[in-house]
Design a protein that fits this description.
This protein is an alpha+beta fold. The protein has 28 helices and 18 strands.
């Protein structure tokens, strides 16, 4: 364009030149001046465009690069031959697990006033299609944390303005990443955007983490990339002290589950090969179809991300990433951690000395997983998988037959297949129970108590500010609750009943031995004990169950308001968030004014207001004595016993690594 304008100007001058004899000398000067101005404008225009291109390149260079060797060709190569599979994957939360920050992907409000919940305010700004933040230099903060002897903690970090380039998450919240000044290292932005409530929240407050724990930084390239992208390679540059990360593709893409597809694509580009495909070997030697693997190997494909593993930070891993490919044995340079079988994992001896809380931050004491996103680690310990053919694909389907339909929109929440929603998933193997389910469950057939999942895979896993099914198939047991602290399925539904009540029924129905209980466990409901007196993880699980419709139906909800309101002043922000959600689902408390990260004094006032509203709604004339939940016949709470539970709360430090 610049050269075109210059050429046009010269042509004009040439034409006018023939007429200079008939015009004044002043006219010639004007023409030459215009020519000079045109050249200057063109030069400035060109410089400005080159500057824009340079800025764009700098931004691109600051982001992890898609495309890597090893046979990865990206999901776009799959679409032509597999349009339906590609379409259903494209609408899934797997694909959008990590994305570039664009107007189509960003849900956070960047026109928001400065965020001021942390030690220093953070400014947000949207500039057309770009998202900018002004904050304390994350590179400085990372160095300060890594070298406390060199950098004084109190030393103020310089403020910088950085363009947000990436985001992680698209189902419940989004986390944003701020580029480093070198390489393509990505620092976590200190706030997350919660979809529930559509608000910014300090990232640390979205996890169940000891509020006394020191703040920490997180790097996408060395942590989140392992599961939130396809075939990542950190690729550190030790001399420059930075990274040049690359990956197969953003998000969890086709080649995450099917393996590198270069050979497959090249083979089927040949029309003759496509024509003969039905006569070729099965399984196809050029690609991996998890559905055609045995139960163990197909589940390992999911387990590469949905399993707890100890990552060996070796030089090979740092340069090449994980060696595991779909169809392989999982335990290569990504060592699975099986808390119930530590004797078979000698490689964990030294790492567990370095991090003695590794197991307790992820497992219940008996080795059952207690954090979300690790469903494979739960399922792999289940008898149905160990001794049978249960796999992840028994209940889940990675593709939907009707992409973009209403059914597909519902499917993408949990990606359950046709039988994954009900008892048929279990009864397809346990056929003897199918003819008379109630004989086994002792509950009406259409009730929550006759759901196989509710009894054998209850919500005892925590993550994403809610309770999640364990994926470890097990039997309800009061003794296990006593030994491990893990709530049993019966008392997760019957929140108003004691462990003695549950133990008696399990003895009568299934012949379990009656456990030895304390007087408190005999008199006060297990749900109330775990909610008020339990450790933070138990309190979070119970706060969620007090909002669960099945539990409210089984237990009645008129008594719950006073007990649940205690969570509004819990020291753990995650417990507060879940408590307010469940509380607002109770009659009369739907509009309670409460901010779970607001000042402590405001949280206390909100608890008092919730209890006032609850007390006025529980009319004494209609109240019934419910000794197990500390309510007398006048509808009053036994404050002495309730406050005794609060004072004896289990305050052990918790940091659940979901």
């Amino acid at each position: 364009m610049e050269w075109f304008l210059l050429g046009l100007s010269l042509c004009v001058v040439a034409v006018l030149g023939f007429q200079l004899k008939s015009v004044s000398r002043l006219a010639g000067i004007v023409v030459l001046t215009l020519l000079g101005l045109t050249v200057v404008v063109a030069k400035f225009w060109q410089d400005d465009r080159l500057a824009d291109l340079s800025v764009a390149k700098d931004h691109s260079d600051s982001l992890p690069r898609e495309g890597r060797p090893g046979g990865y060709v990206s999901s776009d190569s799959c679409q032509a031959c597999h349009p339906n599979e590609h379409a259903s994957w494209h609408m899934s939360y797997h694909r959008t697990m990590t994305q570039y920050a664009t107007p189509e992907t960003v849900r956070g409000d960047f026109d928001h006033p400065p965020l001021e919940h942390l030690s220093a305010p953070i400014k947000l700004e949207r500039q057309e299609d770009e998202y900018w933040v002004e904050l304390e230099d994350p590179d400085f903060k990372a160095k300060q944390q890594a070298n406390p002897d060199i950098f004084a903690r109190a030393q103020a970090a310089p403020r910088v303005k950085r363009r947000v380039g990436m985001l992680t998450g698209s189902h419940h919240m989004q986390v944003y990443w701020v580029p480093s000044e070198k390489g393509n290292l990505q620092h976590i932005f200190p706030y997350a955007y919660l979809f529930e409530g559509e608000r910014w929240v300090p990232f640390k407050d979205t996890f169940l983490r000891d509020p006394k724990s020191p703040s920490y930084t997180q790097l996408w390239n060395l942590n989140c990339m392992n599961c939130h992208a396809t075939a990542g390679q950190p690729r550190p540059d030790l001399r420059a002290r930075t990274l040049h990360t690359r990956m197969g593709e953003m998000g969890i893409a086709c080649e995450s589950c099917h393996g590198p597809a270069e050979e497959h694509v090249a083979f089927y580009r040949n029309p003759l090969n496509r024509y003969q495909a039905d006569r070729s070997l099965d399984p196809d030697p050029t690609i991996v179809n998890p559905a055609k693997l045995d139960a163990k190997r197909s589940s390992m494909v999911c387990g590469q991300c949905h399993g707890i593993s100890w990552i060996s930070n070796s030089g090979e891993y740092q340069q090449e990433g994980f060696r595991f490919r779909p169809g392989d044995e999982l335990n290569l340079n990504r060592k699975l951690v099986r808390a119930a079988h530590l004797e078979t994992q000698p490689y964990l001896k030294e790492p567990l000395k370095q991090n003695p809380r590794f197991l307790s931050d992820r497992y219940w004491p008996d080795g059952m997983v207690r954090v979300s996103g690790r469903d494979y680690s739960g399922m792999m310990e289940s008898p149905c998988h160990v001794n049978g053919e249960l796999s992840c694909l028994s209940c889940h389907d990675m593709h939907h037959d009707e992409p973009k339909s209403d059914a597909a929109l519902a499917w993408r929440d949990d990606q359950l297949n046709g039988i994954g929603h009900g008892n048929q998933a279990c009864l397809q193997c346990h056929e003897s129970m199918a003819s008379d389910v109630t004989a086994h469950t002792h509950h009406p057939i259409d009730s929550a108590g006759s759901s196989c999942y509710n009894c054998h895979m209850p919500h005892t896993t925590y993550g994403l500010l809610k309770a999640i099914r364990s994926h470890h198939i097990d039997n309800p047991s009061v003794q296990t609750s006593l030994d491990t602290g893990r709530p049993n399925a019966c008392n997760l539904c019957h929140l108003d009943e004691t462990l003695e009540w549950t133990g008696q029924h399990l003895t009568d129905w299934y012949g379990q031995a009656k456990p030895t209980l304390s007087q408190e466990q005999k008199e006060i409901s297990a749900g109330l004990l775990w909610l008020v007196k339990g450790e933070a993880g138990q309190r979070a699980l119970m706060a969620w169950h007090f909002g669960w419709d099945a539990a409210k139906e089984a237990s009645g909800s008129d008594w719950m308001g006073f007990a649940v309101s205690q969570g509004l002043v819990d020291p753990y922000s995650a417990v507060r968030f879940i408590s307010q959600r469940s509380l607002k689902r109770l009659d009369g408390l739907n509009d309670l004014d409460y901010d779970f990260i607001g000042p402590e004094s405001d949280r206390l006032k909100a608890m008092q207001e919730a209890r006032r509203i609850w007390g006025e709604r529980l009319i004494p004339a209609n109240a019934q004595a419910r000794d197990s939940v500390l309510i007398n016949r006048e509808g009053k709470v036994n404050l002495e016993r309730f406050n005794h539970l609060v004072r004896n709360r289990d305050n052990r430090s918790m940091d659940l690594q979901e």
